[in-house]
């Protein structure tokens, strides 16, 4: 299934200026969340391990149909409310160098692995959470209004190895940002 992924220009007509600034900021999100939460940000690991991924994600990562992928799913809480649900997908062939550490990150933010001189982030794309998305059920347990959840998707290359990152901006975060 193909989702209606938007570019930043198209997104601008769909969200408030504040939400647009947050969604399109190419820098690390964790420091911004931490500041918004008055330094009370909490990361909770939901899943870390091998999982099958849909064909659409394999296309983004350019992996073979048989390559295993390591999945890490987390939730950030700000002011004791779920703010962001995130999913990282790493093909087994990418689990080398700095990325090998993702298997043992536990409740440490991913940014320390992604934002350094040997990383490149592709252009950001955006979508509304949809029931057709493979992770819809996981995300909807953290928000009372899944239809208002915005997702940004990035393809990173760390030491030339790809990883796919989904960041879901939940209703409580969207409210706190405004």
Question: What features would you highlight for this structure?
Answer:
178 residues; alpha+beta; Chorismate lyase; seven-stranded antiparallel β-sheet; 7 helices; 7 strands; 24% helix; globular
Distance between the termini: 32 Å
What is the CATH architecture descriptor?
A: 3-Layer(aba) Sandwich
Q: What's the CATH topology label?
A: Chorismate lyase
> How many domains would you count in the coordinates?
1
Biggest β-sheet, characterized? Answer: 7 strands, antiparallel
Shape: globular
Q: How would you describe this structure to a colleague?
A:
- By secondary structure, the protein is of the alpha+beta class.
- The protein has a single domain (8-177), classed as Chorismate lyase (3-Layer(aba) Sandwich).
- Helix content is 24%, strand content 31%.
- It has 7 helices and 7 strands, in the order H-H-H-E-H-E-E-H-E-E-H-E-E-H.
- It has helices spanning 8-12, 17-24, 30-36, 55-61, 111-114, 136-140, 171-177, and strands spanning 42-51, 69-78, 81-91, 119-121, 125-128, 150-158, 161-169.
- Strands 1, 2, 3, 4, 5, 6 and 7 form a 7-stranded antiparallel beta sheet that branches.
- Strand 2 (69-78) and strand 3 form a beta hairpin.
- The protein is globular and about 40 Å long.
- The model has no long low-confidence stretch (mean pLDDT 92).
């Amino acid at each position: 299934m193909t989702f209606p992924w938007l570019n930043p220009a198209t997104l601008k007509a769909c969200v408030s200026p504040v939400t647009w600034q947050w969604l399109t900021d190419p820098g690390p999100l964790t420091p911004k969340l931490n500041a918004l939460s008055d330094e009370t940000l909490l990361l909770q690991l939901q899943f870390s391990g091998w999982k099958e991924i849909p064909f659409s994600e394999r296309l983004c990562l350019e992996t073979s149909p048989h390559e295993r992928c390591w999945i890490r799913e987390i939730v950030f809480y700000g002011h004791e409310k779920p703010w962001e649900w995130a999913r990282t997908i790493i093909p087994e062939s990418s689990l080398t160098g700095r990325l090998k550490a993702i298997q043992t990150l536990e409740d440490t933010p991913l940014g320390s692995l992604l934002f350094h001189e040997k990383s490149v982030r592709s252009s950001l794309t955006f979508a509304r959470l949809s029931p057709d998305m493979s992770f819809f059920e996981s995300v909807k347990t953290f928000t009372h209004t899944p239809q208002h959840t915005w997702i940004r998707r990035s393809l990173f290359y760390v030491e030339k190895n790809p990883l796919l990152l989904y960041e879901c901006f939940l209703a409580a975060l969207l409210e706190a940002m405004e």
